[in-house]
Design brief:
With 552 residues, the chain is an alpha/beta fold. It has 14 helices and 18 strands.
Length: 552
């Protein structure tokens, strides 16, 4: 590694260590650093930009930040290809700036968590460089998953696994003598070789990484591909026809192997030495029993459940997603998590705008924005009314849609690996608009931002939305404030009300807050109670179409 493996003597600013269950009801705010705020003018967001906007995040009312990858990386996959897990990539700053961010955030009582990528490294990581130089059967190669090929002269990959980004999950190397050699596994991009978690050296190094950041005051980690890491020993072939780009299933041998739970127990043992620290795992597992296994008391604190984000804007589908998410954690007394978007999926405004039942609606790749906005605002109230932890993707509070990007602007590796058939995730990663009337809207002093910003985003700037009491930002601020201060949000359960077709209503079991949602195209009557907030104005005293309300 290029940096010290410890930070002996570093005095990290800490929040109350006795508050070791803060994460059970926390509102996390995901910062995609390259798109949040650029203070040095290179067109890419940075940590100094995050520090500069901490006042905004405090005003919004969030409890914790989740920083998407900021570790040193060649950026083949925007930071998820880590070459040194114990350093900050110069694109974002350095350790001194990071330490300042921790201190300043903690001073505002905002916790800081960060992405951890244990499934793989960058192909520029020193370990992988050493593995290529060392040759077959070496201790260096044993840190990764190298195999001889099948067929005559080993010319075929060791199995039929495909990459999440498209193409084979195997890459053949050229040995030091110039001859075709072994193959290495990369479930993601070829620049992201998978680590061999059967090798004890791999966890030993991860433990150094965990302690390095925890000693600096980090409050926890979001573990990337938390259902990955462990692989079946015989590497059996997979059902390729059932797989897709950025998709996996519960019976996919590339993921969700039982040995992964031993890895999480080891990680948890380290985390538990740091009072108040918590882990949340990215878990793409549909079966509730298998999902719950990740949330046993000696494994993850939280697990991302994506059912609500994947549900269409339909009352029955939304209720099913909520019930399934609650059931998934019930058996282990776990805490549910709720999110409507992140850096890997379409923004909710676009998603709900495409999910339209109006035959004459004019939609495009970014959807019917007016319809999508109304529905996204309604779903925000549904999400905030539920018990558990909330994850907001930066820009969701502004009501941002996907951006309609030209082909030449796309940077997601999915675009190239798919042969330009899949556009990837860039449309939801465009920089945030802060102020002004033209790009780059205060995001940077450099108009050449890493992804272009639509000129139409004038209406979405933080500056404008702070001045508009009816803006999506104002709705988020109101909802977050009510959620954090009102006793009506107490309790871990919900009770369902009877509701008209196309609608749903539930009540918090202890605090008795009522949330009602109308997914139809007609106004409906409200449940009894005092109205405290709505996502859209009432229509003749009734709940508007594509709207939600809270009552007490």
């Amino acid at each position: 590694m290029t940096t010290a493996d410890s930070v002996a003597g570093f005095a990290a600013a800490q929040l109350d260590p006795a508050d070791d269950t803060w994460w059970r009801s926390a509102i996390f705010y995901q910062i995609y650093p390259r798109s949040f705020s650029d203070l040095n003018g290179d067109g890419v967001g940075d940590l100094a930009g995050v520090i500069d906007k901490l006042g905004y995040l405090e005003l919004l009312g969030v409890d914790a930040l989740w920083l998407s990858p900021i570790m040193r990386s060649p950026m083949a996959d925007h930071g998820y290809d880590v070459s040194d897990p114990r350093d900050i990539d110069p694109l974002f700053g350095d350790l001194e700036v990071f330490d300042e961010l921790i201190e300043e955030a903690h001073a505002r009582e905002i916790r800081v968590t960060m992405d951890l990528v244990p499934n793989h490294t960058s192909d520029q990581h020193q370990w992988f460089i050493d593995a290529l130089a060392a040759g077959p059967d070496s201790p260096e190669r044993a840190r990764y998953i190298f195999r001889d090929g099948r067929g005559e002269n080993g010319d075929e990959p060791p199995n039929n696994w495909v990459s999440i980004f498209g193409g084979s999950a195997w890459e053949r190397v050229t040995e030091a003598d110039g001859t075709p050699g072994q193959w290495y596994l990369h479930i993601f991009a070829r620049e992201q070789p998978d680590l061999n978690w059967e090798n004890p050296e791999v966890f030993e190094d991860l433990e150094k990484t965990l302690r390095f950041w925890l000693d600096r005051g980090v409050d926890g980690f979001r573990i990337d591909v938390a259902h990955g890491m462990a692989k079946p020993a015989d590497l059996p072939d997979m059902d390729v026809e059932a797989a897709g780009l950025l998709v996996n299933r519960d019976d996919d041998p590339r993921f969700n192997n039982y040995a992964v739970h031993d890895i999480h127990r080891k990680i948890r043992a380290v985390i538990d030495e740091y009072p108040g620290a918590a882990n949340v795992g990215e878990i793409w597992v549909d079966d509730n029993e298998r999902f719950a296994e990740y949330l046993r008391p000696d494994e993850l604190h939280l697990g991302f459940n994506f059912r609500l984000a994947k549900a269409p804007f339909d009352a029955d589908a939304i209720r099913d997603a909520i019930e399934n998410s609650l059931d998934a954690v019930h058996s282990v007394n776990g805490t549910p998590t709720w999110t409507l978007s992140n850096h890997d999926v379409d923004r909710e405004v676009t998603r709900y705008g495409r999910d339209t039942r109006e035959d004459d609606a004019e939609t495009s790749d970014i959807g019917d924005i007016a319809l999508g906005t109304a529905r996204a605002r309604a779903m925000a109230l549904v999400e905030f009314a539920l018990p558990g932890s909330i994850f907001i993707y930066n820009g969701a509070e502004l009501g941002l849609p996907n951006a309609d990007l030209p082909d030449e602007a796309l940077q997601d590796p999915v675009w190239e690996r798919s042969g330009h058939t899949e556009r990837g995730r860039d449309a939801s990663r465009v920089p945030l608009p802060w102020e002004g009337t033209e790009p780059p809207f205060g995001f940077s002093t450099n108009p050449d931002t890493w992804l272009p910003m639509p000129e139409s985003w004038t209406q979405y700037t933080v500056e404008r939305e702070l001045e508009d009491v009816n803006s999506t930002l104002s709705l988020y601020r109101t909802a977050i404030e009510l959620r954090s201060e009102r006793t009506e949000f107490a309790g871990d359960g919900i009770e369902w009300y009877g509701a008209p077709a196309g609608c749903l209503a539930f009540r918090r079991s202890e605090g008795h807050l009522v949330c009602a949602l109308n997914t139809t195209s007609e106004p409906v009557g409200l449940p009894p109670g005092e109205l405290i907030v709505t996502s859209s104005p009432l229509v003749d005293g009734m709940l508007a179409p594509n709207a939600a309300a809270w009552l007490i």
